[in-house]
Amino acid sequence: MPLDEKALRSLVTLLEEEDPASLALVRSKILGVGAAIIPYLDELRPAATPEMAVRLESVAGELRFQDLRRDFVRLSLAKAPDLEEGSLLISRFGFADVDSKVYAAWLDKVAAKIAADMPPDAGIGESVRRLTNHVFQSLGFAGNESRYYDPDNSYLSRVIDTRRGIPVTLTVLVLLLARRLRLPLYGVGTPGHFLAGFKEGGSSLFVDCFRSGQLMTLPEVKRMLVRNGYDWRPELGKPVGSRDILARMLRNLISIYQKTGASDRAERLSTLVEIVLTGRDAGTA
Residue 214: which residues within 8 A CB-CB, separation 6 or more? Predict the structure, then answer.
């Protein structure tokens, strides 16, 4: 039987327990209630002692992550997880109040503007050029070279807010707009520097979204990889699916949080990588 408001408020106040065993039991009961109890945790925070505030935030964070894991499982059960939904779920890891509808509406608006200015007879190359010109010239998106390892660069919502990102998130932005424009762009998982790709006249062309949509040929991509210390393999130029793109975005964040000592965040993100790749949540088995 669901708890009423009075019972939920009483349960939350029990987080003041000093006995470790009793406190663990209270946490377990709160986690069993689920996200419905978060407003009551937030309600207590303004008047809480510093120690109690930490406990409230810790439990609320665990509840939000519990919900996020469930949403990742649902997403990952699809044969091809939706790239937009998955990217904004990743944003929810860093920013719990992200409203995916707001960002979807922004993408719709930008795509509509590009479509309105697109000549009806534009080929794929011209269409891609107009798309990237709008994103990187008119809207001012750019690679964040000065703060490359800022976690914000790996959250699509923050990339849209700040207009700065890293190769994979800027490429995801372009792919989501291309999807709305029905342009056959795809992700290319080149190591160290994610790209977009498309076919024109039987040849493969690549878009470097970190460098303002610069077009590259296959030989140029090969040279870039060799310069960066990677051996070329033909599969590196092939399209990668949304599942691999989402895993790459998550792994970028894991690397950043490991380097900054946020091991708890890195560990949680590792759980999400496992869910994305397998569709299973080992933590709830």
Answer: 207, 208
